[in-house]
Design goal:
Number of strands: 19
Shape: flat
Oligomer: single chain
Number of helices: 2
Helix content: under 10%
């Protein structure tokens, strides 16, 4: 498979049949995001259909009376966050005007991949890999356009964050949203389109200037892939403050016995917990011998 999945293209008025086979080790289904169709084809397990079990098959079949930019994904949230998404383009019976020379689709996805891990953490609330069509810059595929061509870029977003997508060097028209092309009289002009979670945006522009132009999310952290805090998330810094070396070593050995593999010898150790402040633990102080008259 791939992330994102293959883009499905059809024409307004078509009747389509999609045979879905589940090769996952867990149940799932496919939801057709934004399409107006019968409830039994909507792809929500437990409501319109039964779960498609591992190794199982389900046939989706329905007519298409809309046109525009849509997408598909499972209605199992954790599966969405490991990349299960694909575009679904329905071309109009009569071509849009003005006609474009290039038509691209970009799927925005994000993953939480911690150091030394190869499997995304689908339960994370913070994401450090943000991708265009499954690739993070500079590995993302460039959009190659001839000077003077009119270009359409369809952007779909299924992640935990909204994305202000910015185009350098040109001003575009926002011509469509999830569900429908917009009337030309209300096309807004701009160079940044906010693509919200579970939304689609179509933008069009004339590439009248040559060059290598950037196209990116303008949230500063989203321009820095492989972000990682120097302190592990959900951990508590425990600073051992001892009045003498012996007390400090004894405390370190205590934590090392209680948390093998987590604590290393030294003054500062880390202990797993659900909060993140710094805790000062006094494990001893310099104790002077009591004067003989106080004994």
């Amino acid at each position: 498979g791939s992330a994102p999945g293959p883009t499905i293209q059809a024409t307004e008025g078509d009747r389509i049949r999609i045979v879905f086979e589940n090769h996952l080790p867990e149940p799932t289904g496919i939801h057709w995001h934004g399409l107006e169709l019968p409830i039994e084809m909507d792809g929500v397990p437990g409501i319109g259909q039964d779960l498609v079990q591992p190794g199982g098959r389900f046939t989706y079949e329905f007519p298409l009376h809309q046109n525009g930019t849509f997408f598909y994904h499972p209605h199992m949230a954790m599966q969405e966050m490991v990349g299960m998404l694909g575009g679904f383009i329905i071309h109009p019976k009569t071509a849009y005007t003005p006609v474009v020379d290039r038509d691209f689709l970009i799927a925005l996805q994000e993953y939480s991949v911690l150091p030394n891990n190869t499997i995304p953490n689908s339960m994370s609330m913070e994401y450090n890999w943000l991708t265009f069509n499954g690739k993070a810059g500079p590995a993302s595929t460039p959009l190659v356009i001839r000077q003077g061509e009119r270009v359409r870029i369809r952007i779909i977003n299924l992640g935990m964050d909204h994305h202000p997508i910015h185009l350098h060097g040109f001003t575009f028209w926002e011509t469509g949203r999830e569900g429908a092309r917009q009337p030309e009289a209300i096309w807004p002009r701009g160079n940044t389109a906010l693509v919200g979670v579970a939304q689609a945006r179509d933008i069009e522009f004339v590439a009248d200037r040559a060059g290598d132009w950037m196209f990116h999310c303008h949230l500063p952290h989203h321009m820095m892939n492989q972000m990682a805090s120097p302190r592990a998330q959900n951990r508590l810094d425990v600073v051992i403050s001892a009045g003498n070396t012996g007390a400090c070593v004894a405390a370190s050995q205590y934590f090392m016995r209680r948390l093998p593999g987590v604590v290393r010898p030294g003054i500062c150790v880390t202990v797993p917990t659900f909060s993140g402040p710094i805790v000062l633990i006094d494990v001893g102080a310099n104790i002077e011998p009591k004067p003989s008259h106080l004994a």
